[in-house]
Amino acid sequence: MANLSHRTVCLPALLCLAWSDAQASTWEVPSAAGACLLWVVALASACCLLLRRSFRIEEEVERLRSKLYAEQQQRADTEAALSETHAVLARLVQQQGRERDTERGRIARDIHDDLGQTLLALRIDVSLLQVSTKGLHPAIHDKLGTLAGTLDHALRSLRAVLNDLRPLALGEGLCGAMQRQVREFSRLSGITHEFIADEHALELAQREPALDVVLYRVLQESLTNVARHSHASKVWVRVACEEGCVCLRIQDNGVGMPTDPVHYGCGLAGMRERISAVGGDLLVESAPDAGTLLALSLPLAHETVVR
């Protein structure tokens, strides 16, 4: 096409030059017809030049269009690969979380059945000895009382460790476990609370693998952060089912979070990891002296959403 357009342009120009040379060699003044022919040839040459430039522009546009299509295709392939990689990583994190919770539960059961029972038996023996020495050996009686107090403290610490490994309260149901956690938070911190929960939403969450643990752990971590850093006087906890998701909102009236994300610590990152592993979303809103809102939504399987 380029060679053809080049010849098309050159032919009128050559004819024009040949005619001009003929006129110059005869030293004759060109007639009106010859002048018209000269103008026609010149216009034809200009048209051919414009046509050639148009061809070049079309070729350049086509080349750029092909390049753009190739880049768009490459970008689409890259995005598909990234999406697949993200899905694989999410499955791996979720599987790791399930295996971790399973292992933590096994360790908790072993500690409870072995160390817990041993400490409890020792506590009973010490109590019996303390009763038998009452009034007979005051020094031994007092020492056994001190030992009994130490064993009670050890049992409480052991229960706390077991609850951290695998929340024993979840065996009683998610709703009861969350209510107990909020009440215990208020008792220890002195911060009042308002707990509103849709029992149907909690039932749906309990049917889903790992969702009950995620909800409970996020609530536990959030309340711990409120007690440590917020200086709040009240916290609101609400659980509901919205658009196929279980939603948990935790809000306090404290001092808010620091504006620099570097000071958030590892707790928030751990929550994001847990929530992302089950396909959920986490939103954190905070302002100085305006409290903090933590809202998460966890998707439910379609078959469990329908009543």
TrEMBL record:
It is an enzyme of class 2 (transferase). Residues 1-24 form the signal peptide. Its EC number is 2.7.13.3. It catalyses: ATP + protein L-histidine = ADP + protein N-phospho-L-histidine. It comes from the Bacteria. It is found in: Cytoplasm. Keywords: 4Fe-4S, Cytoplasm, Iron, Iron-sulfur, Kinase, Metal-binding, Signal, Transferase, Two-component regulatory system. The keyword rRNA-binding does not apply. Pfam families: HATPase_c, HisKA_3. The keyword Translocase does not apply. GO terms for molecular function: kinase activity. InterPro entries: HATPase_C_sf (IPR036890), HATPase_dom (IPR003594), His_kinase_dom (IPR005467), Sensor_HK_TwoCompSys (IPR050482), Sig_transdc_His_kin-like_C (IPR004358), Sig_transdc_His_kin_sub3_dim/P (IPR011712). Its cofactor is [4Fe-4S] cluster. Residues 215-302 form the Histidine kinase domain. Gene3D superfamilies: 1.20.5.1930, Histidine kinase-like ATPase, C-terminal domain (3.30.565.10). Member of the two-component regulatory system NreB/NreC involved in the control of dissimilatory nitrate/nitrite reduction in response to oxygen. NreB functions as a direct oxygen sensor histidine kinase which is autophosphorylated, in the absence of oxygen, probably at the conserved histidine residue, and transfers its phosphate group probably to a conserved aspartate residue of NreC. NreB/NreC activates the expression of the nitrate (narGHJI) and nitrite (nir) reductase operons, as well as the putative nitrate transporter gene narT. PANTHER family: NITRATE/NITRITE SENSOR PROTEIN NARX-RELATED. This is Oxygen sensor histidine kinase NreB. It comes from Massilia solisilvae.
